[in-house]
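2024-03-11 09:14:02 DEBUG pipeline.ingest accepted 1 chain
2024-03-11 09:14:02 DEBUG pipeline.ingest length=280
2024-03-11 09:14:03 DEBUG pipeline.predict start
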Amino acid sequence: MSFYYFLLDLKNWNGWYSFFLNLTTHLNSSQIPRAVILTAIPLEYLAVRKHLADLQEKIHTKGNVYEQGKFNGQYHSWEIGIAEIGAGNNTCALETERAITFFEPEVILFVGIAGGIKDLNLGDVVAVEKAYGYEKGKVSKTGFLPRPEVGKSSYEIFERAKAEARKQDWKNRLNLSDQTESIKVISKPIAAGEKVIASTRSEVYKLLKSSYNDTVAVEMEGSGFYTACHANGNLQFLIVRGISDLLNNKSTTDGLGYQEIAAANASAFAFEVLSKFKVR
């Protein structure tokens, strides 16, 4: 009889051991901070993907196909989900919300390319302070009256981005041949609309210069990204853009590979910010 009770106790012990083992595993995994990085187009996605290890495919119940990988930063080992969501502010808002719900991250970044308007050269990077949704407004007898939506990056991670912009450390994440001294990072506002602007003679360019003259670059997702992020509590969020063209002669600069260069520079800087960012 005593042997029977010994086996019963052993069985119970094994059950408790498994329980505590699973609990410890869950607690350890919950302590690993999680980030999401969104991109609009394939070359941006590939530039981000290069910085991750142990990539695994993750599939949303709605059909979205994500990848999740690991990244070792200065303060944390991160789990990072990545997605290519397509162009446009409306699409970006929807896909940002979906990715946040799926991954439940502490940090979310949008990383990609943009057209430069002023103060920037090809390959430079913008850590975005705020984005003007410049297409909102009223059409009156006297013309178009802008009523922009304005979204801002969250305070803590933008502060970290400004600190890293003053340094050169982020360039160590680039290939040695791409570590150009002249490449800079600035922390300024951008504009976000639904149009690709390919000329400084366009009406949209004139609108940006007259009504949003602190804007240094223009893209197509920032306003939607900020709208979704602001609806999600204590999330830290930031946009990082590399400059792939200066609006004029866009097809020429694209042909010279500046989209790939700009995406690589933006990704390198974004991962430097994430590496130095400490989750509270």
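2024-03-11 09:14:41 DEBUG pipeline.report Residues 3-8, 23-29 have pLDDT under 50 and may be disordered.
2024-03-11 09:14:41 DEBUG pipeline.predict end
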